[in-house]
Amino acid sequence: MRVRAIGWILLGYCMSGTAVEGADYAKAPADERLERHEFESKHMGTLFRVVLYTADKATAETASRAAFARVAELDAIMSDYNPNSELMRLCKANDTAPGKPAAVGAELFDVLQKAQITSKISGGSFDVTVGPVVRLWRLARRTQQLPDAKELAAALAKVGYEKIALDPAARTVALKVPGMRLDLGGIAKGYAADAALALLKEKFGITRALVAASGDIACGDAPPGKEGWSVDIAPISKNRKPRTLTLVNRAVSTSGDLEQFVEINGVRYSHVLDPKTGLGLTGRRSVTVIAPKGVQADSLTKAASVLPPAKALAVIDAIDGAATYIVVKDSDDADEQVTTSKRFVGYLAK
Questions:
Q1: Confidence at 12, pLDDT banded by 50, 70, 90
Q2: Which 3 state secondary structure label does DSSP give 267?
Q3: How many CA atoms lie within 13 A of 253 on its CB side?
């Protein structure tokens, strides 16, 4: 299968699996008996895709339904759009009792722990407490007007990953400032892709599978007869060719402003925000991160988008198995500035 990652957009080009029919089927090796199946379902504001190889269609359908149910379960926990999600209940409880530790479920605690890891290693360039600022920019995209300076300053006063206190022993979360709003939009899809892929393996024994949530992709074992899953990184310049990756038991995430941006007063602002300034990134950029898990790749693309490329490179290179490919253009007419990490070439298709 070849998957093209374009910022948050994912376009799939299907490669047929090995087909063995009739009497030959009984004599074929086990891997050649596997058939390719693909399913789609909308969750977390995007289209999730499950591609898997199984011996029969019935198993594939049952497994894919279970995978999508797992994603829906996590969405109900982590959504900041759903006022009744566990995440939003935590935030609202903090409004009435600021700083009081609140017990949370295993999944919410786990994703917050993983978010804090990325926040710390990136110096706060990725930060799930950015919710108050995100809400201002959602309005800005609708009104085509920049957030009010005073409102932005007030929102930024509630931002900062150090304002979250996690207690692993008690599995509690304390938010230290009233009015804090957590936004898991930069990590939840990668987390959900990991969870769905794990469910396919643990519950159904399906290891040759891929789960994609727009630009966030988690890959399992390679398809039968293939070296790995082929993933295209679409260029931000029309005259450039895609870079093709070959991935096995790795995740990849691409974040950019190709589709998600707003232009205000002649300035193009990305949907990716700098948690320290509260402003959308300007210029053109596409950041791809490969990592062992989707939750890492998803969050690290945001951090690497915000950080200067040299600092992003240092962060990524310090993570075992991680790699990055960063393309920046100051304007549509400017030359591309390309930064690649030391491991990136190892993931390129031969």
A1: very low
A2: strand
A3: 27
Q: Quick check: 312 and 173 in contact, CB under 8 A?
A: no
298 assigned to a ligand binding site: yes
Binding site annotation covers 80?
no
Token pair, residue 156, equals: 């930024």
Q: What is the dihedral of CA 82, 84, 90, 91, to 10 degrees?
A: 50
Per the listing, tokens 């009497």 go with: 23
Tens digits of per-residue pLDDT, 15-53? Answer: 322 222 222 333 334 566 899 999 999 999 999 999 999
> Rounded to a whole number, what is the distance in angstroms from the first to the last CA of the chain?
16
φ, ψ of residue 120 in degrees (nearest 5): -70, -45
Nearest-5° Cα angle at 48, 269 to 316: 55
Identify the bridge partners of residue 280 per DSSP, sorted by sequence position.
Answer: 273
Alpha carbons 294 and 301: distance in angstroms, whole number: 11
Question: Angle formed by the axes of helices 106-121 and 294-306, to 10°?
Answer: 40
Distance CA 12, CA 232 (A): 10
Chain centre distance of CA 331: 26
Could you give all domains of the chain from N- to C-terminal order, each with its CATH number? 86-175 (1.10.3980.10)
- The residue behind tokens 């022993």 is 169
